[in-house]
Amino acid sequence: MEDLTHFDEEGRARMVDVSDKAETARVAVAQGKILMKPETLERIRSGLIAKGDVLGVAQVAGIMAAKQTSQLIPMCHPLAITGAKLSFKFVEPGEIDIEASVKVHGKTGVEMEALTAVSVAALTIYDMCKAIDKSMMIKDIYLAEKIGGKSGHYIHG
């Protein structure tokens, strides 16, 4: 268990002590997707969802989620995020790809914040469209890239 830093010597959960770590610039990029019926994708694209601007609301929800990650994931440190953005790409016949990029200048990274942003953005799309398409599927959420920190630069795959 020595590689798992969220456990103490007795195997109990703990928040990692980052007191002695240097503050550095850190970035994390996460990606995911939501699959839906082609008609649902077209209604989102055309702005014909009764609840409003689906991607606009999902973007705000994702940013808010990144800022609140430490309230959701027990061992995450509260961070003063310096930047967060989400982007969406329509993929035919019925897919929206989601990407979140989160930045911080701090002692620990923002991987969980980026992953949470993508997850909540996808859940928001589901929530806003479930009345017309309960078959939507959220898939393939993963860390695409991480920059900064002791472990250096990571690119998925």
Automatic annotation (TrEMBL):
CDD domains noted in UniProt: MoaC_PE
Q: Which reaction does it catalyse?
A: (8S)-3',8-cyclo-7,8-dihydroguanosine 5'-triphosphate = cyclic pyranopterin phosphate + diphosphate
Q: Where does substrate bind?
A: M75, C76, H77, M112, E113
Write out the GO biological process terms.
Answer: Mo-molybdopterin cofactor biosynthetic process
Q: Keywords of this protein's UniProt record, alphabetized?
A: Lyase, Molybdenum cofactor biosynthesis
Q: Which residues form the active site?
A: D127
The UniProt entry, under SUPFAM superfamilies, shows:
Molybdenum cofactor biosynthesis protein C, MoaC (SSF55040)
Under Enzyme Commission nomenclature, its number is: 4.6.1.17
Q: What does this protein do?
A: Catalyzes the conversion of (8S)-3',8-cyclo-7,8-dihydroguanosine 5'-triphosphate to cyclic pyranopterin monophosphate (cPMP).
Q: Member of which family?
A: Belongs to the MoaC family.
What protein name is recorded for this chain? Answer: Cyclic pyranopterin monophosphate synthase
Q: Which organism is it from?
A: Desulfosporosinus meridiei (strain ATCC BAA-275 / DSM 13257 / KCTC 12902 / NCIMB 13706 / S10)
